[in-house]
Specification:
about 120 residues, single chain, two-stranded antiparallel ribbon, elongated, four-stranded antiparallel sheet
Length: about 120
């Protein structure tokens, strides 16, 4: 089994870099949730974050409902033009947390080990 370097995880999924011969391959992020895996660049991950936000705004109709985000499924666009995901609002919020948490950690590491180093 190949080694990984975890970036971020939550109850719904995980984001990580693959390692090859003890070297972290950091040009792409493996994102795994709901039996689905995506291998995104950071730019694609940022685009996915924007698509998630758009979907949250477009589908914010559950506040007054008794089912509270658990019944309605809708399509979530991905950076892969030919792939959309069927998710409900609870799953969308978990994916949002996973993507935003991953991007935060990536940007923090870039700052700490990049510009922030003295």
């Amino acid at each position: 089994m190949r080694e990984i370097e975890q970036i971020y995880h939550n109850n719904f999924g995980i984001a990580f870099y693959w390692k090859e011969r003890n070297t972290t391959i950091s040009d792409r992020v493996q994102l795994v949730f709901k039996e689905t895996g995506f291998y995104f660049t950071v730019a694609e991950l940022n685009l996915f974050c924007d698509l998630i936000e758009d979907s949250m705004i477009e589908n914010a109709c559950c506040e007054a409902c008794e089912m509270k985000y658990s019944c309605h499924k809708f399509l979530l666009k991905t950076p892969c033009n030919s792939i959309d995901l069927a998710v409900n609002m609870t799953e969308l919020k978990s994916i949002k947390d996973l993507v935003e948490g991953s991007l935060f950690k990536i940007e923090l590491d870039e700052y700490i080990y990049g510009v922030g180093m003295n």
